[in-house]
Amino acid sequence: MYIWQRDDWPSFRWDAARLIQPLAAAARRHGALFGLLYPLGEQDRLLVQSDAVTEDAIQSSRIEGETLARDSVRASARRRLGLEAGPGGSNDRRADGAVAMLLDATRDPSRPLTDETLFGWHAALFPTGWSEMRRIPVGQWRSGPEPMQVVSGPAHNPVVHYEAPPADAVPAEMARFLTWFNDSAERAALDPVLRAGLAQLWFLTIHPFEDGNGRIGRAIADRALAQDEAMPQRLLSLSQAIAGDREGYWDRLEETQKGNGDVTGWLAWFVDAYDRSARDAEVAIGGVLRRTKMLDQARQAGVTPRQEAVLVRMLDPEWKGFMTSPKWAKLTDCSMPTAQRDIADLVAKGLLAANPGGSKNSSYRLAGPLAPADMAPATLQPFFAEPTEEGRRKAKALVRAMSPDEIRLRLTVSEALAGQWEGDPSRATALPALRTGIELLAGEGAGRQAPRSSARSSAWER
């Protein structure tokens, strides 16, 4: 029996005592984000929002096994927010539709959520009327006698994870859901994070569309959170946090949708994802703050336009690795002697710093602190301190929960620390553990470039 087949559907219950502490911790972390935003100007706040929308669109699609080109998504987000789109990024209607839906979900969140709103989001996700190799009804509820099932495995022997209510029940089910969603926005009786988690679960249980349910369900959760924040700017990428634990996401859904109406497990998982999304946002806002300070410092130091252009590239969240003279020469189309002079000048101005162990093939990083204060060696220690198999397992789980930006940041810190500790007798026992951490970070970072697909992902999306 599925949850919607129970006589008391849709009556949800949960263990409030189990959720109090995780909710309080998540609320504190989220509240701190507004303090981080305070020193940012309007342009930088828009950059934060653009980065959050970009990550959300990419990761929400990734959860369902679909890949969107980052350049196209970022260009669309920046254009829609009135920012310079930047280089690269072809016109991709799928990317543009995903961005349009996410921005509409949180812009003026006090608007009622209606079936027409959801139909518009659905049409934005499927601008051609096709999903992969099949035509689907767009901008309308699903119809037809075929059961809507979430399956995995081979076609001749599929595993059914879930079956949604029949299509003829969808209009009434959605009318009841939308009434609850809009009415509950006016009441303060339900914690806003729990309300967002319930909204996503309820919508996914109805599964009202032929395809795109996962992405729209996450956008509904975004709308619920934005209603509590009373601000149109997106700071969080909930989908990024969910993508970090896709198996947990699907497992909690299946467990709850086959359960007895107790949604504590799902809500506990959702609150944890919300907390992780706030941590990811801290890293992203810190990156924008660093970019602003660095460019202000560069302009005051009188850098050339060519030097500023390279600094902007290095400050981009997508920048990978370090700067070298050959890389500089290639990026700016200048000679090697010019590249060497440009780099030496930035080092002298305190804008670039040579990495430890340099030689004729020296590499350089942006100067200043290698990372925020919470990236100090003492804080890094829990990731790498235990040389046991259990220690590696725990470290791997922690790394997998990190955002791509945080992985790159910690990898930069760790590699620089390893260079500094090399040959230091006092670090002889810590260095192997640090190298193990570098291995884990590098391996997970490479894995993020080519996420594994899952038959269950596309099935659950539909």
Automatic annotation (TrEMBL):
Stated name of the protein: Fido domain-containing protein
Binding, ATP: D211, G212, N213, G214, R215, I216, G217, R218
Region of interest: Disordered: 442-462
Pfam families, A to Z: DUF4172, Fic
Keyword entries, A-Z: ATP-binding, Nucleotide-binding, Plasmid
Low complexity composition-biased segments: 447-462
Catalytic residues, chain numbering: H207
Keyword 4Fe-4S tagged: no
Domain Fido: start-end pairs: 113-272
One GO MF term attached to the UniProt entry: ATP binding
Keyword Nucleotide-binding: yes
Family annotation (InterPro entries): DUF4172 (IPR025230), Fido (IPR003812), Fido-like_dom_sf (IPR036597), Fido_containing (IPR040198)
SUPFAM superfamilies in the cross-refs: Fic-like
Superkingdom field: Bacteria
